[in-house]
Amino acid sequence: MLKIIHTADWHLGRVLHNQSLLADQAVVLEQILTYIKDHQVDALLVAGDIYDRSIPPAEAIKLLNGFINQLALINVPIIMITGNHDGAERLSFASQQLQAAGVHILGNLNQVTVPVVLQKADVTVKVYGIPYADPESVRDAFGCEVKGYDEAHTFLVEQVKAVYEHNANNLLMSHCFVDGCETSESEKTLSIGGSDRVSFEPMMDFNYVALGHLHSPQQRGADHIRYSGSLLKYSFSEHQQKKGVTLLEFDEKGLVKHQHLTLKPQKEVRVLEGLLEEVIAQGKTDPHKEDYIMVRLTDQTALLDPMGKLRVVYPNILHLEKTLLTQAMGKTPNRDALKRGAEHMIQDFFKQVTGHEMTPEQLTIIEATLKSIHTQEA
Amino acid sequence: MLKIIHTADWHLGRVLHNQSLLADQAVVLEQILTYIKDHQVDALLVAGDIYDRSIPPAEAIKLLNGFINQLALINVPIIMITGNHDGAERLSFASQQLQAAGVHILGNLNQVTVPVVLQKADVTVKVYGIPYADPESVRDAFGCEVKGYDEAHTFLVEQVKAVYEHNANNLLMSHCFVDGCETSESEKTLSIGGSDRVSFEPMMDFNYVALGHLHSPQQRGADHIRYSGSLLKYSFSEHQQKKGVTLLEFDEKGLVKHQHLTLKPQKEVRVLEGLLEEVIAQGKTDPHKEDYIMVRLTDQTALLDPMGKLRVVYPNILHLEKTLLTQAMGKTPNRDALKRGAEHMIQDFFKQVTGHEMTPEQLTIIEATLKSIHTQEA
Question: pLDDT grade, residue B75 (50/70/90)?
Fold first, then answer.
């Protein structure tokens, strides 16, 4: 049995609401190494977006470098395609020389027909890689007339199908947005208005398709056309996704099984909802206080420094939303409602700071002040 | 005989007065390849500053990538150390994997004692590389107490000398500023006030020292301690330097000879001096009109758009200096001299635009106008 791990969208160097995730990324990369060792995996695929941007920070380069050095120690090849976040030319430096060392960086459209051949005993798998490409790059590389992402992607898939052996185990890697899939907030739109979608149909004829770009693990069109999903949750919208890698097993005849192996981050990405007091009370006994937290407050009154108060119990709170405020933003407030609102806000604020209600005398002063402000405005 | 070419300070991606030099760099890199083939060279050394900055443009990466692919075709290893312009971490990505392919990127201080071993028949040369390092990096890497660049560099050289075999052919590469050497305007100062200088004495005990950092080819302290100089002239101050590479020949016992091989740029960097009319006349019959030109004008009168006029004959003129203006900037002008100056400037300007001298009437108007301006100023 030849075993392959499919993963994608590492986005090394990513930040979540200004928090660097490098240490978190290092932890799950270690888990991938452990899976590779425990399952005696023969190759690792990364289907694009290795880095979060074309010029990654030096620390992200160091992290990837350390990872491939560890892979080299156990003699496991890595096959990467470049994604829309990667700088193909930058990442592909010395890629020709690196092949011999088992580091395959596929970032060149003109090489989509050249497979990386994996072999173990009687089992051979040919891995073809289609890096992320916009239609213009495809036109430029092939001198063809493709219009739009779908035509461009189909063209590239057809290039591969024109040369591959039908009887062999053919695995396709591609970094693209397959139409009809579930999206997450952390994915970058490739093009406005949905024109970035490509069809799954041309990819049916491969034994397995290892996709990258969408961050939620999912299949589309057939069980063997899959997104492994991203390395970590890169937005709070992903808080309920189960991140992981896909373990594939091939025999001489094709894909025997695939399996989702969960990645366990050192800090979870969680969304908490409730009144400020409730969330703080929950935090005091929360065994995972260190998680990356977003809080949705349902309080109906104005609050003094809720972020500061929450940070005492949840040191890694990264984002705060007020559901009432969010709901209110949908309505068009009239002038009277706003006036009444201002008095209430001040009363709430006063109570929070002093612990008492305003006296009728104090309220009179506030009302008079507000009135004089509104008079000046009018 | 084992043959090595020593070169340094490529600064791929450099611009000269806003002019990209990538195409020029590609031409001389081709010449280095030709020298390697013609002389049957066994290894190429680049003593730092491969790129012009830590984040080089993608086009510079592509150029280096193409070059190492060509070297791979003829099976010649390349050994690079990182310079002060390079991003050591960025350039060193996958350096461990690249060694097997003959691409040696030495950017890690903790590896200075690990040589790249070159061998041909009976001749062995061990190449040790000291990447550019400021004293703080040395303290950090070794937990030692070195003060200043000289102590830091000596410390690193001593690390190598503590492990090397005295009887072997030992070659040291280092990117540093050796005290007493000739400088050029295109070198970046490492530290204010000369504290970046290091002594040559600790390096005497090597068979050859391949230096990088200073852009003029030169030796210092001994004939075998040499700067090869930069790939091209990177400032007009270098217009009289002879750029090239150094060809070394070793037998079993050591360095047999070294030789400077000239690099011939597609466009020379030249400085022309004279009156505007003279320089223009010379340009009309100049067989090397396409060179990168700086002009020093000796005209004593004001000139209308000299840059535009010169560009007609010298399309790649990059810089213009007026010697009189330059000399005048040394003096403190008094108010009277400035006043007389303004009238003369206007007369010159008028003559250039119209082809005639001003009439006495016109001059009277100018004088009156200048007077009224000065009255308002006072």
Answer: very high
